[in-house]
Amino acid sequence: MAMDARGAAVALLDAVLGEGQMLGQVLDDPKGPLAGVPPQERARAQRLAGSVLRHLEQADRVLAPFLRKSPPLTVRNVLRLAVVEIAVEGAAPHGVVHSAVDQVRHGNRTGHLTGLVNAVLRKVEPEAFAGLPPQRMPMWLRKPLVGLWGREVVSAIEAVQAAGAPLDLSVKPGREAPGEALPTGSSRVTGPGQVSALPGFEAGDWWVQDAAAALAARLLEVTPGERVADLCAAPGGKTLQLAAAGAGVVAVDISAPRLGRLRENLARCGLEAEVVAADVLQWDGGLFDAVLLDAPCSATGTIRRHPDLPFVKDGSEIAALVELQAALIDRGLGMLKPGGRLVYCTCSLLPEEGEAQLEAALARHPGLVAERVEIAGVEPGWWTGAGGLRLRPDYWAERGGMDGFFMARLRRG
Ligand SMILES: C[S@@+](CC[C@H](N)C(=O)[O-])C[C@H]1O[C@@H](n2cnc3c(N)ncnc32)[C@H](O)[C@@H]1O
């Protein structure tokens, strides 16, 4: 029997919480647990698993009084899904309980736990959910952020993360996109739906890109005809912006599969760029008027779109990333013509991948300056004293927030 959306959601949760896999990895794996699940069911499963991961702490709190002994992970995930569906998704309890019992009955060596699942789900009070604070970030991330911005800001970020992310679109000049126009020029679509079904998708009038991410290319302010390198470019949101602004773009990334997506995006939107598969640290493409460097990072600014991240990452890779980011900055600066500019950005909340990288780059390169420029919709308070732009998920909280990002524009003397 083909797996339905609930079964697929539990399989996703098992892979994230049991095997430390990211949701995208599991969904893209042709031999993974979701192989053969029809697209609509997969999409619903992804949405449900995401909702559970955003509310796992509360679900466990609500379930705890009724579980003297912790059942196997897959049964816990069935219970968590049921509680979240009722309390957060507003599903009818009767159908949810019936489905949960059914899943456990037909599961791998879980049939003997149907009675427990039935009894627990009939006792829990999903209303108890409402009084609980939003799920906290893991301590390795939360602690430094509380030190930096205080508890209130961190709680506001967590509230935005729990609500999930709307869909932001960057619009090709002269075209239109559905949704609400944001102050920085992106369009925001709320509510679930298939991206490819939105008006203008086939025509390539817009592409999906978080509103905060879209500010990096704006900060670079390219003009038509400039030679621009987009380093670490795939899947290409920023390449599309630079190409749409009329620059001659060379897009470089180390990952061939991700560059495949970049090429698809260029083709759909009728835009052009030279695409190079290479390690930026080894690549020599001559000199450029401007460079955009979107360096690999902890991606801790994207938790509202990637609720699996806090359960898979533990911060152990950050030191190596910080080293790589500094090497990439130095390489990118070396590609600039005299007087050229480089925008460095990361979708990280952590200062070592943002503010501290700016400070260290300025110290390593005498004559280098950080430039602050006017960007429509960017509030003065988002700039740091050193001339970087710190974007936090709780900015525009009432509208659904934005990704956390740090970006800075550096000019070579
Ligand atoms: C944050 S993502 C880039 C997102 C992209 N700029 C966009 O706007 O769609 C970071 C990218 O860096 C690439 N990458 C990591 N190390 C690299 C290296 N040494 N050389 C080139 N690309 C690298 C990864 O493959 C990944 O696609």
Automatic annotation (TrEMBL):
| Keywords, sorted A to Z | Methyltransferase, RNA-binding, S-adenosyl-L-methionine, Transferase
Instruction: Please list where the region (Disordered) is annotated.
Output: 171-190
Q: What range(s) does the SAM-dependent MTase RsmB/NOP-type domain occupy? A: 129-413
One GO biological process this protein is involved in is: regulation of DNA-templated transcription
Q: Decide whether keyword Transferase is in the record.
A: yes
GO MF terms listed in the record are: RNA binding; RNA methyltransferase activity
Please indicate if the UniProt record lists Ribosomal protein as a keyword.
no
User: What CDD domains does its record include?
Assistant: AdoMet_MTases
Q: Which domain of life is it from?
A: Bacteria
Can you say what this protein is called? 16S rRNA methyltransferase
Origin organism is Cereibacter changlensis JA139
Upper taxonomic lineage: Bacteria, Pseudomonadati, Pseudomonadota, Alphaproteobacteria, Rhodobacterales
